[in-house]
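Open question from group meeting: does this chain pack into something compact, or does most of it stay loose? Before anyone orders reagents, we agreed to write out a predicted structure and look at it together. Recording both the input and the output here so the notebook holds the full record.
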Amino acid sequence: MTVKYEMTQADYWALNRYVYTHDRRQRLFVLGAILLMPLIAFVNLWFSGLPHWFAWLAAAVALVVWAPGMYGLLRFRVWSQLRAWPADMRRIEITLAEDGVHLASPKSVGLVSWDGVVRVAQDSRAVFLFLSRQMSYVVPARAFGSEAERAEFVSFASSHVEQKA
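Structure tokens returned:
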């Protein structure tokens, strides 16, 4: 079974978003980064001798400004990584075969045996063939001609992968 597509920033973001929302360590890291700054501001101002309402206000402002800022910074970092790829490297062809996952782009060809694929996952945006906890081949939903083709792809991959991660 072969699928061809062009990797976009939205596809790359879908992978990162999936990892950040489904991997426990990453979820804790992101929540910690988002909530730690307002908590530090609150504790510092609470014990600083200023009125307590000031500590609450500073924590609320830090949360309202810091959280979207961290999200924006994370998204910018992810998008910047993909922007560095040459345009012709974004055209990808993935073939699932009995010996593994064959990946081809205009400048490279590769094979990952089924032992190298640790997990198959999917959400509404894409199918992910994970090679480690955070590294994956992303196959966007638009690469499939139909929902049945997508289900066949996932079924074939899942039948060859021992879910490890």
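Observations to bring back to the group:
DSSP finds four helices and seven strands in the chain.
The radius of gyration is 21 Å.
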